[in-house]
What we know:
Layout: H1 17-24, H2 28-33, H3 37-51, E1 58-62, H4 68-75, E2 79-84, H5 87-93, E3 99-103, E4 116-121, H6 131-144, E5 145-157, H7 160-167, H8 174-186, E6 188-189, E7 201-204, H9 209-215, E8 219-225, H10 236-241, H11 243-255, E9 268-274
Amino acid sequence: MSRSPYATESQLPSVREEILAYYEQGKEEARLRNGAGRLEFWRTQDVLRRLLPEVPARVLDVGGGTGIHAEWLADDGYEVEVVDPVPMHVERSGRLPGVTARLGDARALPAEDAAYDVVLFLGPLYHLPERPDRVRALAEARRAVRPGGVVIAATINRFAGLNDTLLQGNYVIPERRTRVDAVSADGRHRYSPEDPHFTTAYFADPAEVPGEFTEAGLEPEGQYGVEGVAWLMGGVEEWLDDPEHREAVLAATRRIETEPSLLGASGHVLTVGRRSGED
């Protein structure tokens, strides 16, 4: 197996301890399987099923966590490998039928060149505040995907924290307002032991992400708002509980998923790029 050009023994990238500690709590899968978080899960699944190549195909799920997406991808017939920096995630995802898993960092993937049909980044870019690190990770995805293959990356939107804090009624708390306003200004969510709600992260302007793809050698092909404006509706959890209402929410969100004027209102965005078939 050829090694990433970045993965020299003396210069392996490291993940911040507070990020590892946050995910070792094991809360992420429960967040996506319950309550309003189901909207993000179902919509991500919906978009991916329309973008991925037909089976059989090899999928590298980078930052795949405990395998919440790897599980259904394997059930659909894809050959799935999870790479994640959190040992607990690797242990759990590796137990899923049809899924293999290993420890690794998005910036130095333990992957052969041009070995996969698809590379998914459904989380790693959240926790790389520096643009060079994000471009480095995307360049690794380009290296690992075959010519003509697809790279799909999720980002948290710049004003997602402000919108969520307002929705939860916490924007009236001076300390929370100060922190969320700072993130809105530069996208940097700074870790604080006094604020356990999230960890070190970067909240992206959707307009900047295609440029990072291009810098990494990928050809951007489109962006999709995951939750649209539906996540900001009061009572969305109850709507998702009812099959008829759930179908309406998902249909409406799909209808506006690529509308430029609404892209930044979504909590998350999926950006799609492709490695040139001539590489």
